[in-house]
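Q: Hi! First time doing this. I have a protein sequence and I read that you can turn it into a structure. Is that right? Here it is:
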Amino acid sequence: MTILILLLLAYLIGSIPSGLWVGKLFYNIDIREHGSGNLGGTNTFRTLGKKAGLAVTIMDILKGTSATLLGLLPFFASTNVHPLILGVVAVIGHIYPVFAGFKGGKAVATSGGILLGYNWPIFVILVVGFFIILKITKMVSLSSMCLAIIALIYSIVYYFTVKEDWPLIVIVFLLAIFIFYRHRSNIERIKNGTEPKVKWI
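A: Yes, that's right. Below is the predicted 3D structure, encoded as structure tokens:
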């Protein structure tokens, strides 16, 4: 029962629709009706501006981090659920949020939050890598998918050089699948040369 409660909390944390709530509470705008209709940080930036976009992105990151660290709470001390599993459950909540009709974001920020809570150096590497790739490509979607590949490469190198952490490889691979799946339409637009590009970097 404790494990079920833990998993449910992770899902509910992931289900918090940051973009929807920020848009409605502070701008009286439902971002699902604007831009790509996505609830993530990118569409929030596009629809509501930099301040709202940054706030939503940070909140989405912290959802992943919070869920990953849930097992450290005293009440759950006796459970043996791997923190990465809790993070994945939060990502599922982010993609299919119960508080927003099961239509959520693309899981990039929340996935990053998992890695922040579990192995912070990789998070730092990914943040730096994101801005470098974004500077070159001007495409958030392509930069996000590249990060998934970088994270997988890091987890494999980490396994052979630092610690044999096979759960990290498995979970990062799973998160990469989620991210690429959620970017299906972006991949088509990239192929067609119609993917929107950012102008602020």
